[in-house]
């Protein structure tokens, strides 16, 4: 099956290819002029911000979320809204880099899904740096070496969620954004791989788990070897003959591997959520989420008491996670996400009551709901 018009297609026979290309050239000229005008405008915004405050932040997560959402709402096709927003994401990233590129640290190594999340959020013009551990990403932002950090939070990768949550207990950094990434796993091989003799498959333990049924059906006899990351799996395959890796697009591209089979994850809507951490509060974008951490004494009904004000003030909770306290003072800490911004009266009313009931409450940040 092909969607390309055939030479027998009478409706297209009279189309003048030359004229169409002239039209495209003229449209490109207009797009070029408009993007340049937009970039000059963004530069002026930066100058206004600097005049008001010499330490002003050029990057505004809430404004960027609004721009992308507006583009998706205005878009009438034929390109899908997400594709159009992706193009505008890159235009904004380039405009911002004219003044000062955003510096973002992420949980590496290169080629992981966290790098993909960083690129999705900040665009290609940001300067992104891989770091080997989640607490190092936090430290890099605390030290001011990076403006933002990108860490997985609700991750299909085991253990990672807890590391991120635990890091929030010891930091004053704020959550400035979230990114949700659809996770697609591919079976990757190198140019040297003997495809009919794959006897070992590398990946992160959680990715192996997410593709277990597919592996049982297609490679029941291959040894499954868990390594530290999907990118590490891809790297190993490069130099071995009888092995394949399960990893994503970034790793395939980075190590120049071929996708022997695509989208082999057992659950088709497999996705991971990442947080953007920074050192400032983000104003409301109109569609926001808030995350907080609360410490409770371990007594009957404590959790019910903590959550009840959210229910009464019609604040919609989206996540609840509990972790043992590391400070010994309180038995448990709860991480709570809900819809809304901490500046909204409804949210403030709920928070005021929650503060009276919990031993300690810290709002980790209000931030725009992930757009792309
Ligand atoms: C232009 C601005 O600054 C930055 C660039 C943006 C853009 O190119 O649209 C949007 C938000 C900021 O990250 C602004 O705040 O409006």
Automatic annotation (TrEMBL):
Residues 291-368 form the ACT domain. PROSITE patterns: ACT (PS51671), CHORISMATE_MUT_2 (PS51168), PREPHENATE_DEHYDR_1 (PS00857), PREPHENATE_DEHYDR_2 (PS00858), PREPHENATE_DEHYDR_3 (PS51171). Keywords: Amino-acid biosynthesis, Aromatic amino acid biosynthesis, Cytoplasm, Isomerase, Lyase, Multifunctional enzyme, Phenylalanine biosynthesis. One of its GO terms (cellular component) is cytoplasm. The record marks 272 as: Essential for prephenate dehydratase activity. Pfam families: ACT (PF01842), CM_2 (PF01817), PDT (PF00800). Its EC number is 4.2.1.51, 5.4.99.5. Catalyzes the Claisen rearrangement of chorismate to prephenate and the decarboxylation/dehydration of prephenate to phenylpyruvate. This is Bifunctional chorismate mutase/prephenate dehydratase. It comes from Kushneria avicenniae. The lineage of its organism: Bacteria, Pseudomonadati, Pseudomonadota, Gammaproteobacteria, Oceanospirillales.
């Amino acid at each position: 099956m092909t969607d390309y018009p055939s030479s027998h297609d009478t409706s297209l026979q009279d189309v003048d290819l030359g004229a169409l290309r002239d039209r495209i050239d003229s449209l490109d000229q207009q797009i070029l002029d408009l993007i340049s005008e937009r970039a000059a405008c963004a530069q002026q915004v930066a100058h206004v911000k600097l005049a008001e405050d010499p330490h002003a932040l050029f990057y505004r997560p809430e404004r960027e979320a609004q721009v992308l959402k507006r583009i998706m709402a205005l878009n009438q096709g034929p390109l899908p809204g997400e594709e159009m927003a992706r193009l505008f994401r890159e235009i904004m990233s380039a405009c911002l880099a004219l003044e000062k590129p955003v510096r973002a640290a992420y949980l590496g190594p290169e080629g992981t899904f966290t790098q993909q999340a960083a690129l999705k959020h900040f665009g290609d013009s940001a300067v992104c740096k891989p770091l080997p551990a989640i607490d190092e990403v936090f430290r890099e932002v605390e030290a001011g070496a990076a403006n933002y950090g990108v860490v997985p939070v609700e991750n299909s990768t085991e253990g990672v969620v807890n590391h991120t949550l635990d890091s929030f207990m010891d930091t004053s950094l704020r959550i400035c954004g979230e990114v949700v990434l659809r996770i697609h796993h591919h079976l990757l091989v190198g140019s040297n791989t003997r495809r009919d003799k794959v006897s070992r498959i590398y990946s992160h333990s959680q990715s192996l788990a997410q593709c277990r049924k597919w592996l049982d059906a297609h490679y029941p006899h291959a040894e499954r070897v868990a390594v530290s990351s999907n990118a590490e799996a891809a790297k190993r395959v490069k130099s071995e003959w009888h092995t394949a890796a399960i990893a994503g697009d970034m790793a395939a591209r980075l190590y120049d591997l071929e996708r022997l089979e695509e989208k082999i994850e057992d659950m088709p809507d497999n996705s991971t959520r990442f947080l953007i951490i920074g050192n400032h509060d983000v104003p409301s974008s109109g569609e926001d989420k808030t995350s907080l951490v609360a410490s409770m004494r371990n007594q009957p009904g404590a959790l019910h008491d903590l959550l009840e004000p959210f229910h009464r003030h019609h604040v919609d909770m989206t996540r609840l996670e509990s972790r043992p306290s590391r400070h010994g003072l309180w038995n448990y800490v709860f991480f709570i996400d809900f819809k809304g911004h901490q500046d909204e009266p409804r949210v403030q009313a709920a928070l005021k009551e929650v503060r009276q009931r919990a031993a300690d409450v810290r709002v980790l940040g209000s931030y725009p709901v992930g757009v792309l």
